[in-house]
UniProtKB/TrEMBL annotation:
Residues 564-666 form the SH2 domain. This is Signal transducer and activator of transcription. The keyword Protein transport does not apply. SMART domains: STAT_int (SM00964). One of its GO terms (biological process) is defense response to virus. Keywords: Acetylation, Activator, ADP-ribosylation, Coiled coil, Cytoplasm, DNA-binding, Isopeptide bond, Methylation, Nucleus, Phosphoprotein, SH2 domain, Transcription, Transcription regulation, Ubl conjugation. It is found in: Cytoplasm; Nucleus. One of its GO terms (molecular function) is DNA binding. One of its GO terms (cellular component) is nucleoplasm. The gene is Stat4. It comes from Piaya cayana (Common squirrel cuckoo). Belongs to the transcription factor STAT family.
Amino acid sequence: MSQWSQVQQLEIKFLEQVDQFYDDNFPMEIRHLLAQWIESQDWEAASNNEAMATILLQNLLIQVDEQLDRVSQEKNLLLIHNLKRIRKLLQGKYHGSPMHIAVIISNCLREERRILAAASMPVQGPLEKSLQSSVVSERQRNVEHKVSAIKNSAQMTDQDVKYLEDLQEEFDFRYKTIQSLEQSDKNSALIKQEMLALQAMLNTLDYKRKEVLSKIGRVIHEIDILMSNMLTEELLDWKRRQQIACIGGPLHGGLDQLQNCFTLLAESLFQVRRQLEKLDELLTRLTYDGDPIPVQRPQLLEKVSFLLYNLFRNSFVVERQPCMPTHPQRPMVLKTLIQFTVKLRLLIKLPELNYQIRVRATIDNNRRFVLCGTHVKAMNMDESANGSLSVEFRHLQPKEMKSSAGSKGNEGPHMVTEELHSISFETQVCLYGLTINLETSSLPVVMISNVSQLPNAWASVIWYNLSTNDPQNLSFFNNPPAATLSQLLEVLSWQFSSYVGRGLNSEQLNMLAEKLTGQQVNYNDYQLSWAKFCKEHLPGKSFTFWVWLEAILDLIKKHILPLWIDGYVMGFVSKEKERILLKDKTPGTFLLRFSESNLGGITFTWVDQLENGDVTFHSVEPYNKGRLSALPFADILRDYKVIMADNVPENPLKYLYPDIPKDKAFGRHYSCQPNEVSKPSDGGGKGYVPSVFIPVSKILSDSTDPHSPSDLLPMSPSVYAVLREHLSPTVIETAVCYKLF
């Protein structure tokens, strides 16, 4: 079943989440019509390879054209219209930036996998639940409503200022007309009546001036309250959601909504500023005793400038955290002399600022590292698909400075993966007479000099962003706090859903919890230390919990990914638990689990029944990446043989736990069927006997015999038949013996 088919079967609450990240950047119609083709492409790789992304974009447009031809024959007018619009939109948006659509599609597929994993969990995790609370959604709606109301109020005040200007012009004209008369004419009854009318008009002007200033004051007050409370909370929430998304959590949305709010508030403040300037202009033409403008205007103008400064400072954000293109799912880990990308956005989107803001990137001030590459660029609205005012640095690379002792070495091999650094950005905005200096920083990054340091560096990134909301605590690991076990397990499940397409269920998480704590505990109350997670070796082992888990992730990604995504790898189950699960099952029932004693190993255990009715279990020595590079795991399960006491090889694996026929579970993952091997005369074989590799094990009757150190022996069926004809059973046993445990 395709991933999209699984998505469509989700409950409505999960479908609503899916709906949130499909928009004009990648319309859901295309996702639906081209589901299988989209899922068969490597969008993640294309997001870091422009040539590959260009080809995929061209193929995507070809696929859309084929769908357009199909619906044209069916005369589906609505779908024809939508597909034409979508094709034009895709070509227009991504013709010059094909990697951008690769990033978008890769993120969408990843988020689908995360939602599918969340749907399989009995309850929503505590972190994800906190990010999606109804209180947050209600506040978002309130912010948007209040911003809209403020914008309307500012526009209405514009009309009041215009009325005041017209009224003052009329007063000025009538007053100057009277002043131009001869002194004798000023004493006439008509002129005295006109003077009374002018006094009444002046009173009206005074009232209107006070009214306009009061309205401006109310608009400024509303903006101040909104910025100090709800908008600040919204921005902090977005930054927290970004932190969680960086470590595998739900994709963070809402930045476009924040941009809309920031832009409307900035427009409103500049509008109020122009209104105050107009009042100053009116003041130069007419003032009087008790005039409210010279008293109130300076205070209001100062407050507007203060709010604009704060609004601009808060609007300068890191939209996409530093990340090496070679490791898109491990952001904030940077390798020296390797390029990384980072994207910034100014949430105040004003046309006057396009290409007018130059951003400078630097690294923290400890002088240990410098940034090489293009580190000054102008923000613009042309590079982003959504037209935001942003800048993306794509060619920065950190370099470690030589030591003061004059060492000629470049990057040292023993960088501390708990040492945090910060990428800083600064710029200056000059607009309408205002000059505002802006600064922002990335989340803390970890520097490495060798890719072997990546797992521990990534563990540091996970622990930091799980444990703190502080975006700049570079001394965090001087005394790292403990983490709540329930939240940590949720993040560990995200590592699997984001990196290998399927998260962990409650039973798998239970096993990890016991491995971390050595006992059954209450998830919500237990606090786990950083040392337990990443520093201390597991009991009786030469590696830490995190190194063990990271090796499993690597094994899944490179060797058993389709089997893992299909849910056929139980994986995290102890030896004791597997025997409980298998003991009452039909002989030949087996399950797949990850080795607890070997890094990056996977084994299978099956249940058998002795002649006296006793149940016995057999577990094959774990397969590591070396063996799996030579033979696909699905083929191993299909062809696996054991030699019993009578030397007759047979496959003991019949049913995948609980009762799924083996071929039904793994059939579509077999590289070829055994009976599909060509005959000697087929395909230009030149008389050679065709062969396939078959893993063979020997079950020894004496359980006290030592474990055999030998590896699995690949053997073709024809070779094995020849051996049986010409060699004694003892010699065969010596050749293929593979002790099971």
